[in-house]
């Protein structure tokens, strides 16, 4: 008897590129004109906190820009989740909220999110829409110890237990728009393979881990993902 497959989808910066958010590695080591070590490491934050607050405030503001909106790839994944309730886990390395804007639920943000602030004093994570900096009070403990809720280089990614459990249960693993340079995310394909999943990569160019995938789809995510999702839904039609 056939059962509905469990699908784990890992997304990277490439899925949001066509929504107007720059990727990390297509810009000569610069992220929005800043050296990554200046704005995405604990050392960078210690050395120049004002720069780091300003940088993430700008990134958060960018999400409100009317030109930055989910593209057909985000929308297709949300439709897949709706069509296969409880069977599709979206794990993203992205700190934007375009999956949520497209309608995806329970998105696992393993590298944190622009939409929250974390208190270094009481560890409370608070949903955040505007700016904050070293003078902003934590709504919970009222100290001024907020930092961007982003996983910087050298820090532990979030929700790893939940992700590993989903990968262990996966029948299909799909990596979309990620270069395969940053671990542990780059190792998920091997983990999923070992658990018996069929593995699919969708990218503009082959990633550094492309040889580990059973199937590779080349092209812009806004075009390839809606097609892939309709193939999956057709294949799953009638399965219960
Ligand atoms: P990268 O910038 O390393 O890679 C983006 C990938 O997307 C590349 O392989 C591109 O070929 C691909 N790409 C670009 N445009 C695309 C499109 N329209 N359709 C499909 N693919 C496209 O971004 P990530 O792999 O997400 O971590 O980077 C991983 C992590 O490194 C980030 O989460 C961040 C960064 O440093 C932290 O901040 C901790």
Structural commentary:
This protein is of the alpha/beta class and 240 residues long. It folds into two domains: 1-21 and 68-111 and 158-240, TPP-binding domain (Rossmann fold), CATH 3.40.50.1220; 28-67 and 112-150, SIR2/SIRT2 'Small Domain' (2-Layer Sandwich), CATH 3.30.1600. The protein is 32% helix and 20% strand. It contains nine helices and eleven strands. A six-stranded parallel beta sheet has the order 5-4-1-9-10-11, sandwiched between helices. The protein has a three-stranded antiparallel beta sheet with strand order 7-6-8, covered by helices on one side. α6 (98-102) links the parallel β4 and β5 (108-109). α5 runs parallel beside α9 (221-236). The model has no long low-confidence stretch (mean pLDDT 94). The chain binds 2'-O-acetyl adenosine-5-diphosphoribose.
